[in-house]
Amino acid sequence: MRNVRDYAIITASYWVFTLTDGALRMLVLFHLHRLGYSPLEVVSLFLFYEVFGVATNFVGGWIGARHGLKTTLFAGLGLQVVACSLLALRATALTVPVVLVAQAISGIAKDLTKMSSKSYIKLVVPESDSSGLMKWVAILTGSKNALKGIGFFLGASMLGALGFRDANLAMAAALVVAALSSFVLLPPAAGKASTKLRLSALIAKDPRVRWLSGARLFLFGARDVWFVFALPIFLSDGLGWSFSRSGGFLALWVIGYGIVQASAPSFVGGRGSRRTAPTAARVLPWTLFLIVPLLAIAAALQLGLDPTFTLVAGLIAFGIVFAADSAMHSFLIIHYSDGDQVSLNVGFYYMANASGRLLGTLLSGAVFQWAGMGERGLTACLVASMALVTLSTLACLPLRRAEARA
Questions:
Q1: Is residue 190 part of a domain?
Q2: What CATH number is given to the structural domain containing 141?
């Protein structure tokens, strides 16, 4: 019962962080766009968030294995307090260096918190219960994404209701409560490795982990190349939606995405007594199928069909497939990892995840601006997404062979 209680505490802390992370993304995106920054300038400011996320995941798993997951969780929550406070204090004199520093701090905070929460699942579920592990991973991941969607709506709404400064102060206060609660209630040594770890342990030695990480990199690049910048700006400028409406729509999409992700074990693992945990062979067709909604959206836009209906229907289809695929990825990395060193593999895997977001974020602004913005820019981003989906699918082929050998 102690493990379950600790898991509940760390999950609740992760939920609070996720709400503020989604809200902060929308706050910064719309605030900077309102100040007149170009697409590439806004995306460039987000790059620090992704770059420092890559670096954090690379060493964060090692820190968690050496010092315990409580340390990395508290550090992540505390750093997000610093990021929100910095933006609030400089709200009336916001400059590029201030936003870069805040995004760097927030990137570190996000990945420390996520790595800690995902790794903790391995300490709760029995080693032999693969189906149970899939269920708990899906619930945590799905609920996180649903809350991030609520955070999108929260950020867009708070920008209009409270203003940039007070919205950041409110989020900092909520994070302080979560950080202090986790520090007081969690045991200090949870997730700590039983043996001393060298820095060489940062590189995953299991070929399954390496190929799964490669597939993850291209998978999230394929999502973010059109979702991070091109889509919200097209909704605002191309369709004339308000910030609140755009943020609300993206929030509903991410909430639905999270619900599908949480329920993924019920439809990716077979039925009845034949239900089994996902394998790499099952991930491959789900990844490849992502091309279908992307191609349909791009074709419909080029044929002059109603862009509102096209995007809503296409995003629903894309979200269902992507959520199921992502849920299977999240299960496999935990399933492949040993209990006392799970944070090492999770850190390496989420380093690839952050690298994919970095790639997608950079391409989202660059391709959207290069192609002329508007409908043409969004279509170009969809084509780039299809190319990245193809690379993710190709990475699943050696993953399937490595899993069979293991």
A1: no
A2: 1.20.1250.20
Contact, 31 vs 163, CB < 8 A? no
Question: How many independent structural domains does the chain possess?
Answer: 1
pLDDT digits (tens, 9 = 90+) for 73-93: 888 888 889 988 888 887 777
Give pLDDT, residue 216: 93
Give the range of the structural domain holding residue 53, as residue numbers without chain letter. Answer: 2-184+200-405
What does each C-alpha distance from 210 to 234, 241, 286, 353, 402 come to in angstroms?
A: 36, 42, 19, 12, 10
Q: Contacts by 339-342 with C-beta closer than 8 Å and gap 24+?
A: 339/122, 339/123, 339/127, 340/65, 340/191, 340/192, 340/193, 340/194, 340/195, 341/65, 341/193, 341/197, 341/201, 342/119, 342/122, 342/123, 342/191
Task: Please state the pTM of the whole predicted model.
Answer: 0.74
Per the domain annotation, does 193 fall within a domain? Answer: no
Is residue 33 included in any domain, yes or no?
A: yes
Reply yes or no on whether the pLDDT at 213 is more than 80.
Answer: yes
